[in-house]
Design a protein that fits this description.
single chain; alpha/beta; 7-stranded mixed β-sheet; 15 strands; binds pyridoxal-5'-phosphate
Length: 359
């Protein structure tokens, strides 16, 4: 089988093959989503996620179908007056655009953005100006398109500077890969086809008590995925519609299997160091992100000449190695390596050998 380093959809945990068989044999595939069997499964999944990902007890975990859906849920069910989007890449910008489309019908909605350089952290000073009158601040925790991430220290500073704002984080390519400072934010989400090592079609949405309270006050209830409706159903561990039960089951099994997130993060950081040491000595190839403070642990973007990249990707394919394409503005001058937990140490050796042989 091929080795994929694509940062989403990405390699699923090898154990998923058995988990899928088990789902069939345990009769999971036809259980009713209002049955006790589903309630038990859903409750167990949430409890395991809280335990393994260190999600604060008082936070609420919900199921959605994708990160994109979480963008819409926020815009339709929480945004009333204003939001500011802080981004340096394609996913953060997409979130902004989705919000623009959905809030466009309120003529007095104040939508702002602050873009920042990929080698830097966002300026808190500029953010203070932009976000003075914003209720929500929206960040991409790990920007999959360019391999940048926001360090905990920065998130801490944002929390201190904006104690009463609602802080939202797209953590699609970092949740279940690195430890997230859930308590410093209010609205966190990720789809499962990245660090969870699962097939696409499910997302995990984590809300602080503040967000739950806001959603209940607003009572936006026009959609099947209105947040107030989702929260009401989740009080009984249920969903508003027939959910992706197979994927919830797989999520439960993966959550059961994985170590606690600090241990996962430690392993991924070790692997990142291996890549850094090894790639440092190769001419003509470098990390797109030179500033190690903002360099992601889970998605590594490598920069080289266009010709070199085309050749490398072609040769890799011949050897059943799939590298991630560059994305957006960096489409032709970078390739990406997913440093996700499902990838085996032996596959990293394979990739190292391959790059060595072709440089
Ligand atoms: C992959 C990704 C998305 C989109 O996820 P979907 O499940 O396709 O909606 C959004 N944001 C980030 C940061 C991503 O990496």
């Amino acid at each position: 089988m091929e080795s994929t380093f694509y940062p989403g959809p990405s390699k699923v945990y090898a154990q998923v093959a058995d988990f899928m068989q088990d789902a069939y044999h345990e009769g999971i595939l036809h259980i009713n989503h209002r049955s006790d069997a589903f309630v038990d499964l859903s409750k167990k999944t949430v409890q395991l996620l809280k335990k393994k990902l260190l999600i604060p007890h008082e936070y609420t975990v919900l199921y959605a179908t994708s990160a994109t859906e979480c963008w819409e849920i926020m815009a339709q069910s929480l945004l009333q007056d204003s939001s500011t989007h802080i981004y340096n890449g394609a996913f953060g910008q997409k979130w902004y655009h989705y919000t623009q489309k959905l809030t466009g019908r309120h003529s007095n909605f104040h939508l702002n953005y602050l873009s920042f350089d990929i080698q830097e952290l966002p300026s808190l000073e500029l953010l203070r100006e932009k976000a003075k009158n914003s209720e929500f601040l929206c960040f991409t925790h790990n920007e999959t398109s360019n391999g940048t991430a926001l360090p905990v220290e920065f998130i801490q500073k944002v929390r201190q500077a904006f104690p009463s704002h609602i802080l939202a984080f797209d953590a699609t390519s970092s949740m279940a890969g690195v430890r997230l400072p859930f308590d410093l934010g209010d609205f966190w989400y990720a789809s499962v086809q990245k660090c969870f090592g699962l097939p696409a079609g499910l997302a995990v949405l984590v809300c602080s008590p503040k967000v739950v309270k806001r959603a209940m006050e607003i009572q936006e209830n026009r959609h099947y995925n209105s947040l107030a409706f989702m929260l009401e159903k989740m009080e009984d561990w249920q969903t508003t519609h027939t959910p992706n039960v197979l994927n919830i089951y797989l999520l439960m099994r993966v959550a059961e299997m994985i170590p606690s997130v600090p241990e996962i993060e430690r392993r991924l950081q070790e692997r990142k160091k291996i890549y850094e040491t090894f790639l440092k000595n190769l001419p003509g190839i470098s990390f797109l992100i030179q500033n190690s403070i903002v360099r992601s642990t889970t998605v590594l973007a490598m920069q080289a000449s266009e010709d070199r990249i085309t050749e490398l990707k072609q040769k890799a394919l011949e050897q059943n190695i799939i590298l991630g394409n560059g994305y957006g503005a960096w489409k032709n001058t970078t390739f990406r390596i997913a440093n996700f937990p499902s990838i085996l140490a032996s596959e990293i050796e394979l990739l190292k050998d391959f790059i060595h042989a072709n440089y």
